[in-house]
Amino acid sequence: MSLRLLTSFVCTVRQTLPRHTIARSGFQIRAVTGMEAATQTDPKNVIEIEAATQTEADKLVRDKKFTRYMQRNKRQWEDEIKDKKEDGETDGKKPCDAPFERIKRKKMAMLLGYCGVDYYGMQRNPGVRTIEEDLMKALFEAKYITEEDFVNQQNAQFQRSSRTDKGVSAARQVVSLKLPLEIDIEEINKRLPENIKVFGVKRVTNKFNSKIKCNARTYSYTLPTYAFESDFVNDEEKKLYRITEDKLKAVNDVLAFYIGTKSYHNFTEKKHYQDPSASRYMMSFTLDRVFVDSEWEFAELLVKGQSFMLHQIRKMVGLMIAVVRGHTDISTLEKAFGKDKVMIPTAPGLGLVLDKVHYERYDAKFKDSHDSLTWEAEEDSVQTFKREKIYPNIVKGEIEDKSMAFWLEKLNKHNYEPSDDVPSEKEMENEQESDDEDEKENDDFDKVNGEVAKENGDEVDKENGDVVDKENGDSVEMNVDEVKDDDKINVIDEKNN
What we know:
The structure is a single chain. With about 500 residues, the chain is α+β, with helices and mostly antiparallel strands. The chain has 16 helices and 13 strands. The strands form 3 sheets. Strands 3, 4, 5, 6, 7, 8, 9, 10 and 11 form a 9-stranded mixed sheet that branches. Strands 1-2 form a two-stranded antiparallel sheet. It has a two-stranded antiparallel ribbon with strand order 12-13. Residues about 20-30, about 30-40, about 75-80 and about 420-495 have low confidence and may be disordered.
């Protein structure tokens, strides 16, 4: 009986009390005052109030579509659910055209050589022919890199050890990039021009960088020996000339002046005496050998240094020739390393060759886990390539095109003192047939004096056997003037020329 009375009471209250509805989270809250409960008891009024309240509630519910919840970004799966077709597929899905096979790639070091006579340098440059462009194209056609890697080589972590310029060749260039574990070198070489050849590929550490890990570079410069004499009249005399022991000693005495750490601000462009990045460490510079080709005698110079700047080697050779020929004396060479500005002649780029890049520190550290980067097994192939592709082009350029002979004519009129009458470096460059592009390296070496890869505490990755650097190859600033030994610092190359 009490339940029936309670039900009747609730119904009476619901019919009597007015309703003020607030739509929030699906609940309706009714509020009433004592005065409203006492006065509003007419059933007609109750019906009108209920209709008005219901209309307001519907309006509130419709406005819910414009709340913060409904204005949020739709989830991806919400669109997919709406786009579902009868067969269960969605419009957002794109079926694969062909089955995708994931190829496991690891960091590799690649040794290659090239004759740069017909190329505009090593680094990619839109609109012109470069070594990297032909190399990446061959790797892509051999399916060793993806299309994304070909378009953007940084996806494959591509890095060159040295950047050579227009007309400069390389006997042992090293690049690092990610490649499949199984590589057929012949598949790459048959897609390359005959002036580019890959000699070998070796597995390296995951964080190996062919530029940063390189602790020194050796360049060779080949030129005809008649360039050391200034009293020849015709080509026949130049052809019959053979260098003497006294002249050999004179050449080596001048080249020895370059050894050590010095400021080479006069041997490049846009550097001043106090610029710390102009300090470079030369380990050796000698006349290595003399040989005869096509009845002409040639000399090969070898210079080993931690790093080189734009035109540095060619200016070093040019000033040496000027001193040996008697156009200037040793005081000009001494002055060139001082604070005064000296206009140094730039020798032709035809005879310049990147001979070798050195990884002694890397080999000593990872000799137990990875192959050495001395490339001894590939030495015969390297020497054959030099004899067949590099030296013949240099000899041909000197005998037929007379690259050095034309430059020596300008050397006779060269002025070593800066003045308005002296042509700029770019004007001199444009007059030479075999010369470098006036490009600038976008390296951090312009901002700091040098970078070194930290070698503090490495550990072996048990999964793939790689030795991983804990410090992640961070770099620190150092003063190259403090460098006395190549085992103490690994200076990054700014411009290898």
